[in-house]
Design a protein that fits this description.
Prot_kinase_dom, mainly alpha, ATP binding
Amino acid sequence: MVSDQGKPLIADFGNVILKDLALSFAPTTTSGVTHQYAPPEHLVAESMRVATRQCDVYSFGMTVLACTLLFEKLYRALTGA
């Protein structure tokens, strides 16, 4: 996610673009996205390079969902509940 001032707040380093910076990251996958968290429109080849705030919100929501489900599973495993 990006603040109103353009500062990156949360990023998926499999699909991040940093402009005007000397530091860069090499993609670790051939498609450049983390499929589990990517919005559906990023899985279509023609729109892979289009990044919007809506895409960020979708990806953040998927991250929250994954963390919530993982927390519940870990809690049950640790407590026997």
